[in-house]
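Following up on my earlier thread - several people asked me to post the actual chain instead of describing it. Fair enough. Here it is, all 250 residues.
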Amino acid sequence: MFKIEKHLADASINRNATIEKEFDTVYQREVLLNSIKKEIIAKQAELEAIEKAAIEKEMAVKNHCKGLVERARQEIEVLKKDAWNEGYQLGREEAQEIIDDAQTAKKNEMERFMTQIARMREETWASSESEIIDFCISMAEKVVCVALDKDDELYLNMIKNALTKIKCDSLVQVSMSRQDYIKRVNSDTAVFDVQGEQVTVGFTYNDELSEGDCIVETNAERVDASVNTAIKQIKESITKEDLDSNDAKN
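Reply from S.P.:
Thanks for posting it. Predicted structure:
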């Protein structure tokens, strides 16, 4: 019988535990990605259904308008025939005036109808616009988070982009979450090429920060390059544009 030393057995058990943990992590990520894909497909189907309904509604409106025009034309013809057959003995100008009045009335009716349709479309869009924007931003946030999780270089590019927004003539400190520090840098310093200039950056982690957070600061400046902050700024920008647009309309 072979004698297995205890420290070798313990090492083997620890390696197996590590492999199982890594396998569970990969599996959980695959499950999350599949869930996101299903959600995106469902939302795409929902948007396609909305678009199809809108097209069908627009076609119905066009057909209805064509019907109104045709009815107006028929009624005008009826008026002409009645005026002739019943012998109202109206002069040519009076008969034409009646026809013009009928045409104007039908035209005004059609314009009112089209105005109502346009108002209904605007109200429908206004009621669902914020939900569509929230959905798009939520999807963008999930896509960015998945990309960050797969590609450490993307996170480093966030830091590099933030460095272009500050003066790097003093000590530059980058704070991040403990998870990002261990996974993405795991070092106290790094050198970045910022517009042709070599900038040395110090790394540190802060347990109050979440994954994807990134704070770049010097003695005089501070830039929040976090993913959540960028998404929030995009949403605020879109909301501000909508408010400005509504103010302009009013």
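The helical segments are 6-85, 92-150, 152-163, 178-185, 227-249. That should answer part of your original question.
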